[in-house]
Design brief:
Two copies of one chain form a homodimer.
Chain A lengths: L2 H8 L3 H9 L7 E2 L5 E2 L2 H16 L4 H12 L5 H10 L12 H17 L2 H6 L4 H15 L6 H23 L4 H35 L2
Antiparallel strand pairs in A: 1-2
Chain lengths: 213, 213
């Protein structure tokens, strides 16, 4: 399809598409003449992902470029490729290295991962932004007087393990490795508000069940 | 305890405590002389919550005041009191009323709530900020080409139902209604990054299990 059709089908203005092309967020189309290029379904899919990252996830252009480079790197194993794409997303706060609350929190996270038998997460440890964000969040909780230990976290981690299995089941529906990684990135950015609002709704429901209105 | 001890035990500078007192975020201490007031454990607890809201949750002062008014309103039933406190927290985006994607998304959410038998959430519906945030998030997903229907959401909602049961179990540990509501507000603000980073860790673990590293 030509640029105008790509714009029509995606709902993205041609000027924005040209900007994404210039910034290397969208691969160039196939040149068919000096002034025209041809785009395919992969461009349409990639355009959706770029919008999800930039418009909804508020991911800066440089970080989005890094995410997409990992999505496209088929020299990586699937877990590393998925990890590299997700790790390039902007992350929460990092723990301060000398903060005693962060040291204690890291100890609890390590105990949690050992108790759960999450051997990959233990092995990757501090390299994973999710690990660092968890440590920082627990350090903040402790500093504010709401300490939270491995025993307390374990049932939540088990629930999130089941949620992650649903996430990965959903990815299985996508036929190619690149589409799987694209869908995982979109899900990471777009599904967090869905999950958090489902949690609030569930809290209201459970509270009404226990205490009445 | 005097102001200096309240500051020492909470780690909050006295100038900040005075600011919270002036803004009505912390109830006044009991006057013991023209220049001194006495503070109790309830002040210490409230101070923790105010810091969680303002410093971590980035909740504006006016919204924090509204949250705390609901926390303190013992004329309300427990679910309504909890709801009022959580509803006063800043929320995600609201759906545009005339957006056809939002109308379709609201239909899917209503179907989901019916399928799950979440009768309170159905009854409250659009009044709940969590309902509106969910509708807006689903409308965004559809607009970006990642539609998501009730059947797809149901297993996630069931997981969040179990997570909400854990949340409410945790609240049971607090002895008084006001402490329960305080803990719920702190959890809403502080536990979201914990849950989201546990989800990412679980995804890494599950991916390594299925696809290797």
């Amino acid at each position: 399809m030509r640029l105008a059709e790509l714009s029509g089908r995606s709902g993205v203005p041609t000027a924005t598409i040209k900007y994404y092309l210039r910034e290397g967020l969208l691969p160039p189309g196939e040149r068919v003449s000096a002034t025209q290029a041809e785009y395919g379904e992969a461009h349409l899919r990639r355009l959706r992902l770029v919008r999800a990252l930039i418009q909804v996830g508020k991911v800066p252009v440089a970080a989005a470029r890094e995410v997409l480079a990992a999505v496209d790197d088929d020299s990586l194993g699937q877990t590393i490729r998925l990890g590299a794409a997700l790790w390039a997303l902007p992350q929460g706060v990092r723990p301060e290295p000398d903060d005693p609350d962060a040291v204690a929190a890291a100890r609890e996270v390590d105990r949690l991962l050992a108790d759960l038998g999450w051997s990959t997460s233990r092995e990757i440890g501090n390299l994973s932004p999710a690990y660092r964000t968890l440590v920082a969040a627990l350090a903040t909780l402790a500093r504010l007087g709401y300490p939270c230990d491995a025993a307390h976290l374990a049932p939540y981690a088990e629930q999130m393990g089941r949620t992650a299995a649903l996430d990965l089941d959903m990815l299985e529906e996508y036929p190619t490795p690149v589409e799987k990684v694209e869908a995982a990135v979109a899900a990471a950015v777009l599904y967090e508000p869905v999950l958090l609002s489902l949690r609030r709704l569930a809290q209201e429901e459970e509270s009404a069940r226990r205490y009445g209105l």
